[in-house]
């Protein structure tokens, strides 16, 4: 397969490989990764947290400006919840909220009253996943991948959300899996029959690969411009990644799920099980509900819960769950009450959900008022306080995530400091 054909198939596959600014290294193949696996799920558009984990019900027909159309008396509490703040959930027509929160209450941490300080989609997405309002800062997914497995071929997989790497690590975007199988076996005429004779013998293919590597290193040593080095590294990574893709295909199921979030979860789990992935951005859109808020939010939430449930179920079945950390967030929240189109507009106050290794389950931190304004927290007890205290920001969450991942003192993470200085004991 020549370069032109390879790149054409890569494009058709939706496989985008972006190199970091770190010069390519011709070291021996990186050892299989066995550390924690970080899944970051973005609910794109700005979810209405009062429609699930921070419910605010109507007082009835006499309520002049209801927060929601469901009644306050219909708000549910997850079965078995013993946290200081009860784990409540909003009622929904299809019962998806109840099913999800009742099933995962002992695994789930809910962070309410998170102030993103913005109602801009781009800025909100960035601060949620990088912990800062500033531009061009590496996401948590990029930092943990760079610090824990920067030499891995698919250390950071992304399906969207905020995946800026700022030169810390390569980001890989995976699309058409059938085309990926063709890329993984470029020396085979029919990828469905990998035992057939290839275009070249194994010995010839090995010599070709060795020659390509030597040529790349020779050209790279002559280049002093970082942008040219980065472009060369990108092309070389794309052309020499077949062996790593073979590892991925070994763990891919024969049939992928139809649901978008389920399919993303399948590929991410396969990459981790292959030992070539540290973190993955998954995503689902449809939460920007300026009109018809209730139906759209509840429909998208049902899909979100289904995707998370599938991810956790598969992780447990394949022995991954004990090492997995899941973080779920969105651009921001939705305004208190409805606009003239029965929709809700942008609101800076939101919530985040976390599950997995090192995350204390059956836990709710943060509280908002009846009109969904945030209350500050005591920085030691994390109890809501009327005066003083600390306003919970995404930066606080990221400080805790960095500590959890063991990268808070890492030199790569240190290049991207977080404005919030308080070390809140969110995870104990």
From TrEMBL:
This protein is called what? DUF1501 domain-containing protein
Query: Which PROSITE patterns does the protein's record reference?
Result: TAT (PS51318)
Which Pfam families does the record cross-reference, listed alphabetically? DUF1501 (PF07394)
Organism lineage reads as: Bacteria, Pseudomonadati, Myxococcota, Polyangia, Polyangiales
């Amino acid at each position: 397969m020549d370069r032109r054909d390879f790149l054409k198939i890569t494009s058709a596959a939706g496989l985008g490989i972006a190199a970091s600014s770190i010069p390519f290294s011709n070291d021996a193949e990186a050892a299989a990764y066995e550390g924690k696996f970080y899944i970051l799920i973005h609910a794109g558009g700005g979810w209405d947290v009062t429609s699930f984990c921070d419910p605010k019900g109507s007082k009835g027909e006499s309520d002049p400006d209801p927060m929601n159309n469901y009644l306050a008396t219909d708000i549910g509490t997850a079965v078995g919840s013993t946290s200081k703040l009860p784990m409540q959930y909003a009622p929904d027509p299809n019962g998806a909220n109840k099913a999800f929160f009742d099933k995962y209450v002992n695994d789930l941490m809910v962070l309410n009253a998170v102030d993103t300080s913005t109602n801009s989609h781009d800025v909100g997405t960035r601060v949620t996943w990088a912990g800062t309002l500033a531009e061009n800062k590496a996401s948590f997914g990029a930092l943990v991948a760079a610090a824990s497995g920067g030499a891995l071929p698919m250390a950071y997989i992304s399906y969207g959300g905020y995946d800026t790497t700022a030169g810390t690590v390569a980001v890989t975007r995976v699309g058409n899996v059938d085309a990926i199988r063709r890329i993984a076996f470029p020396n085979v005429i029919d990828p469905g029959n990998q035992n057939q004779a290839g275009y070249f013998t194994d010995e010839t293919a090995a010599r070709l690969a060795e020659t390509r590597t030597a040529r790349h290193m020779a050209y790279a040593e002559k280049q002093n411009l970082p942008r040219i080095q980065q472009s060369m590294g990108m092309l070389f990574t794309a052309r020499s990644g077949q062996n790593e893709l073979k590892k991925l295909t070994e763990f891919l199921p024969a049939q992928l799920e139809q649901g978008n979030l389920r399919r993303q979860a399948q590929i991410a789990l396969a990459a981790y099980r292959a030992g070539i992935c540290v973190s993955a951005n998954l995503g689902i859109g449809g939460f920007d509900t300026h009109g018809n808020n209730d139906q759209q939010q509840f429909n998208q939430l049902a899909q979100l819960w289904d995707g998370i449930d599938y991810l956790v179920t598969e992780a447990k079945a394949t022995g991954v769950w004990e090492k997995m950390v899941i973080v779920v967030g969105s651009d921001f929240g939705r305004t208190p009450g409805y606009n003239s189109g029965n929709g809700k507009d942008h609101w800076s106050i939101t919530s985040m959900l976390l599950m997995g290794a090192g995350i204390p389950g059956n836990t709710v931190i943060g509280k908002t008022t009846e009109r969904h304004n945030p209350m500050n927290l005591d920085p030691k007890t994390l109890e809501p306080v009327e005066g003083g205290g600390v306003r919970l920001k995404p930066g606080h969450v990221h400080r805790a995530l960095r500590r959890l991942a063991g990268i808070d003192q890492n030199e790569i993470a240190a290049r991207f400091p977080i404005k919030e200085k308080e070390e809140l004991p969110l995870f104990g």
